[in-house]
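Escalated from tier 1: DI6 holo job.
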Amino acid sequence: MSWDQVWIDINIATMDPSKSEAYGAITDAALAVKDGKIAWLGKRADLPEFDVLATPVHRGHGGWLTPGLIDAHTHLVFAGNRANEFELRLQGASYEEIARAGGGIVSTVKACREADEAELFDLARRRLNALAKEGVTTVEIKSGYGLDLDTELKLLRVARELGKHHHVDVVTTFLGAHAVPPEFKGQGDAGTDAYVDLVVNEMLPAVVAENLADAADVFCENIAFNLGQTERVLSAAKALGLDIKLHAEQLSNLGGSELAARLGAKSVDHIEYLDEAGVKAIAQSGTCAVLLPGAFYFLRETKLPPIDLLRQHGVPMVLASDFNPGSSPICSTLLMLNMGCTLFRLTPEEALAGVTRNAARALGREQRVGVLREGMDADFCLWRISTPAELAYSYGVNPLVDVVKGGKLIHQ
Ligand SMILES: O=C(O)CC[C@@H]1NC(=O)NC1=O
Ligand SMILES: [Fe+3]
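Tier 2 regenerated the structure:
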């Protein structure tokens, strides 16, 4: 066989649901890469003959290969920080009180409107590097801290540029309906409706015309956009050919997830307040449940997402960092595996599926990444672990040894 590289002395967590073994595991394995794709994988004893003189052979020293990690929900591009609010909250102010007093998202908006693309790019690249060092090979980045046309476009251009200058694939999401900007505040629903007009009639067409977003998202919550406003934005985005997703049921249940399911959303995200009707709706529509334990932890939430119902109804569960300056200033995908298990009681296998197979599905990339199978992109990580469960069990000493992205070895 003529391959570009072969990996031996490895175990593989394929995360392939068609395999009966936990993690889709293949022990004493080998894997071959050709033209950026997985060409062969299986037991080393079954490895076909290949030209050992012409083919680079990588030894894994008994470590584990997993699919490259996917962080399917980040707000990575932003300026400023909200440490002051962290202090206020520790003095008793709630996240909602701070938002209603003009803090929260809107305070980051000011910093983003003032920052130029170069500054935003440099800040975001450092954060993306941190995720990449943990084995992330695909990341979703949302806008949402501009809340005016120019700044929303600026944030999405920075996200697109990041993808061009980094081995990590960047999937972008327009989140212009993240909060009501100051210039529309104080006018009640009429002001919010007027801002939604701007989002629908000007921002979305401009974003699509410049191909700056792969999806659109809305913060459907009583401190942001109601069900009718959410439907206007998501329907307009769908009509323009974008995938849709939704920040839903984070602080209350407005029925956002059922709306998202009806519109065919790729995912509903946060969903601490999701009820069984909502679980059934997203199960029916094939929508993924994106769990964000970083925000739950940082905001000291107490309402757990309905994990048992999601399991019972077979909803694909995703874990993501939700990295953002307000509710989840935690730039770590690996830590989300530990939090998903310790806080949300996922199993380690569910947690790993949440940042591989299911995360790919939440981004519409399940045909290419998230599972190690012949024909899929050669995006994989080599970990110095003795069992895949270690990735969720322990945090702090990074077990990543090597990353391969599209067949290219990314030196650590
Ligand atoms: O506080 C921020 O800056 C973003 C908060 C973040 N956005 C959202 O829709 N929900 C969240 O937790
Ligand atoms: Fe978020």
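The radius of gyration is 21 Å.
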